[in-house]
Specification:
With 192 residues, the protein is an all-alpha fold. It has two domains: 92 residues; 54 residues, Winged helix-like DNA-binding domain superfamily/Winged helix DNA-binding domain (Arc Repressor Mutant, subunit A), CATH 1.10.10.10. 55% of the residues lie in helices and 0% in strands. The longest helix is centred in the first third of the chain and has 31 residues. One of its GO terms (biological process) is DNA-templated transcription initiation. This is DNA-directed RNA polymerase sigma-70 factor. One of its GO terms (cellular component) is DNA-directed RNA polymerase complex. GO terms for molecular function: DNA-binding transcription factor activity. Pfam families: Sigma70_r4.
Length: 192
C-alpha cells in the first residue's frame, strides 16, 4: 500500500532536510574549490552550483532508495561544473586558478573528496588513464608554484640554520657527561 501523497511529500522533505543539514557544509566547500571562490567569504558561484546540485538531487530523491544521496549530489555538482566551467575561469587569486577546469575537477574529486580513479573516470566519462594524467599534471602544476616557506626568524639568532654555519664564531661542542652513575638512578648492588 502506498503512502498518501501529502505524507510521502512530508517524509521526503524531512529526509532531504536532514541530508542537507549534514552534507551542505562539505558540499559547499567542494563547490568553492571547483569555482575557485574563497570559502571564508560569500561565494555566489559556489552557492549557485550547490543549489542546482541539491535541487536535482531532491527531484530524484524517491529514486535514490539504497543509493547514497551525497554521491548523487556530488555527481550532479561535478557534471554541472563540467558543463558550465567556462563561467568559472575568472581568476580569483587562489592556487587552483592555474589549473584548467577539468584539472581542477579531477583534483577536487580525487584528492579532496577521495574518489577512486576509476569512479572519477566513470563519472566524468573519461578513461582512467586520462584521469590519472590530469591529476598528476594538476599536482605538479600546484607544486611548481608553491610558495617557499619563509626562513624562521628568532630574536637574536640566525635567520636560517645554514646561516649559523656561515657566520659567527664556531660553536663549542657540548661538554661530555661526567663519569659515574646517571642521575636519578637507583644504586645497584653487586650480584652474589
Amino acid at each position: 500500500m502506498r503512502e498518501p501523497r501529502p505524507a510521502q511529500e512530508s517524509r521526503r522533505a524531512r529526509e532531504f532536510t536532514l541530508f542537507v543539514a549534514g552534507a551542505a557544509g562539505r558540499l559547499l566547500h567542494t563547490a568553492a574549490l571547483l569555482t575557485g571562490e574563497p570559502v571564508s567569504r560569500p561565494a555566489p558561484a559556489a552557492e549557485e552550483l550547490l543549489t542546482c546540485a541539491l535541487s536535482r538531487t531532491y527531484a530524484a530523491w524517491d529514486r535514490l532508495r539504497g543509493d547514497d544521496p551525497y554521491e548523487r549530489a556530488r555527481r550532479e555538482m561535478a557534471l554541472r561544473f563540467a558543463h558550465t566551467a567556462r563561467r568559472h575561469r575568472r581568476p580569483r587569486g587562489g592556487p587552483l586558478d592555474r589549473l584548467s577546469p577539468r584539472e581542477r575537477l579531477v583534483l577536487v574529486l580525487r584528492l579532496y573528496e577521495g574518489m577512486p580513479e576509476e569512479q572519477t573516470a566513470a563519472q566524468l566519462g573519461l578513461p582512467a588513464e586520462r584521469v590519472h594524467a590530469l591529476c598528476l599534471h594538476a599536482v605538479a602544476e600546484l607544486r611548481s608554484h608553491r610558495p617557499r616557506p619563509a626562513p624562521s626568524r628568532r630574536p637574536g639568532g640566525p635567520q636560517h640554520p645554514s646561516a649559523a654555519r656561515q657566520s659567527g664564531p664556531p660553536q663549542e661542542p657540548p661538554a661530555a657527561p661526567e663519569p659515574g652513575p646517571p642521575p636519578h638512578s637507583a644504586p645497584t648492588s653487586p650480584a652474589p
